[in-house]
Amino acid sequence: MFDKKKWREDNKEKLKAQKAEYYQANRDKILARVKKWSKKNREQKLEYQKAWYRANKEKQAKERKERYEANKTDILAKQKKYYEKNKKRISKRKREYCRKNKSLISIKAKAYRQANKEKLKAQKAEYYLKNRETLLQKGKIILKKWKEKNREWVKIRDKKYRLANIERIREKNKEYKKNNPEKIIMKGRKRRAVQKMASVVLTDKENQMMEQLELTRVALQKETGKKYHLDHVLPLAHGGIHHPCNIRILESIENISKAASILPESVALAPEHFRLYSERISLKRAHQFVRQLANGLGITTKELKTLMENKTQKTKTKPTLEDFMA
Fold first, then answer.
1. What is the SS3 assignment for 2?
2. 256/228 Cα distance (integer angstroms)
3. What is the signed CA dihedral for 192, 194, 196, 202, rounded to 10 degrees?
């Protein structure tokens, strides 16, 4: 009895060659017939494809992988070309898909992260090591912009942290001073140099006012149990003068968080600073103060002088020490 199955097995290569030959000879005819049938039986074709794919999923994946590895360069080049040609359409389609399937994408991404935790961690570490300098530079710029945008929020957050961690901060500072004595000495020298440059000879009345400010500070500390500082409204580091007109009583936490930053209201004191520097030290030192303050504000000396003139014009009478102390 003729065994059809056995005969096919024995003539497998021959039949394969015949099929290929027939296909090449009648390619257009076959494709037209397939296209016509597909159009007429679209639903049936899709169902068949789905059923076949489900039954041959692993085989398909393996073949696809092999095909990709064998033609990787060509495939990537074609993908790139197609993307460049259809960039807008692809982007629009992706945005639309993301909008419609937001929750599904989120669930899939979360599941992927959970399943590939170590792999992703290793990838991040590798990427960071390769691009460390660039990332640090970008991070600094982003953080600076963010802090400038959220200045008030950062100020409140930092204050809360300091109040909640007073002892911890104190211990850290002690440890830092112990480990970096040279830096502390240099910082002290720099501060004394700045104070020396900012010092002017005070009159008896001004000395009395300075003493009164100190007495008020001490009294406030005893009354409230909080620590207070004599704060320079316009910081010494930016040309501020050690004079009653530039001093206010401020809670130590606020003073530390303020550091050497220039507040908007500080500019109002610039004309009085210029006058005191020019009268009690020299005109050269007064102009040096203008350059120093302008640099701190990030503006030109010309712009600062215009601001100072405007502030002076708004004040009809010459301000007294009592006005600045009010």
1. coil
2. 11
3. -120
